[in-house]
Design brief:
Rossmann fold; about 25% strand
Length: about 280
């Protein structure tokens, strides 16, 4: 069941909701191998909060090099059932971005981590996933007041369903987000298998400047049908205006930021895309 939730068991979402959101932010601990003493950079990472237009208090982790000025910013969006800490505990992407002179803001989307649902609801609903772009808007507004960053150079990177939210956010806020990267997007309605969280009904909607990365073996297996994340990414790519890119990694079932961990080319492509488009 855990794997099905990670792989977007939409039937579970629509029938009974997602209950028991992650609360592992309370004691964030980062461990790793001992390193030798010597000169290096300091990257303070702080927990911050800001309000969305519909009253949700969004929790986030903000990292920026000490003494920096006018750094471009990358907003990180986690997968369904995850939280902002995944970008530190599950992958080295957060720190890698800091090392490459980006400021980084990893947010808890509504109903995940330390970000509550609207009206103090306890069950995640489809409408919450559809409205997650409002949490990204709250992040964009907050960044306007932060020292050391260039709020005119903001990118968004999403893992799994966070890749859907990244796509929608680019479509809704093309003037505020310069570019984005979507890692293994995919979310389907139970009976019709229609794609979800793809900006339906939002006007104006103008997604552009997005790189899609996905494994060709990343699939959701059902009793009678197999859903392909590569096909989902191809569909979003076809709806995205230039500049855009799609990379399907052969013989890979890695999902979301696992691509960055296990496919060396994926991390290289991420930084090349940011360098050229941000």
């Amino acid at each position: 069941m855990g794997d099905l939730i990670r792989k977007f068991a939409v039937a579970l979402i629509l029938m009974v909701g997602v209950v028991g959101c992650s609360d592992n932010d309370n004691a964030l601990k980062i461990t790793g191998p001992e390193v030798s003493q010597g000169p290096g950079r300091v990257y303070p990472i702080t927990q911050v909060n800001f309000a969305s237009n519909d009253g949700v208090q969004v929790s986030a982790l903000f990292g920026v090099r000490s003494g920096s000025r006018d750094l471009p910013v990358v907003i990180l969006l986690h997968d369904l059932g995850g939280d902002k800490n995944d970008w530190l505990s599950g992958t080295g992407a957060f720190v890698e971005l800091l090392e490459h002179d980006y400021a980084v803001l990893a947010i808890d989307l509504r109903g995940h981590g330390n970000t509550p649902l609207p009206e103090d609801r306890q069950v995640l609903q489809l409408v919450d996933l559809e409205n997650s772009f409002l949490d990204v808007h709250a992040a964009l507004t907050w960044l306007q007041s932060q020292d050391g960053v260039d709020a005119n150079r903001i990118a968004v990177v999403g893992s799994g369903s966070g890749g859907n939210v990244a796509y929608v956010s680019l479509g809704v806020f093309p003037e505020q987000i310069k570019t984005g990267i979507s890692l293994s997007p995919g979310l389907w309605e139970t009976s019709s298998l229609a794609p979800l969280v793809v900006g339906d009904g939002i006007k104006p909607f103008d997604p552009q400047s997005m790189l899609y990365m996905v494994g060709d073996q990343d699939q959701l297996q059902g009793l009678e049908i197999t859903l392909s994340y590569a096909d989902f990414a191809r569909n979003l790519e076809s709806l995205t205006a230039e500049p855009k890119g799609l990379r399907v990694f052969q013989n890979s079932a890695d999902h979301g930021f696992e691509l960055l961990n296990n496919v060396p080319e994926a991390l290289d492509l991420l930084f090349l895309w940011l360098e050229n488009n941000l």
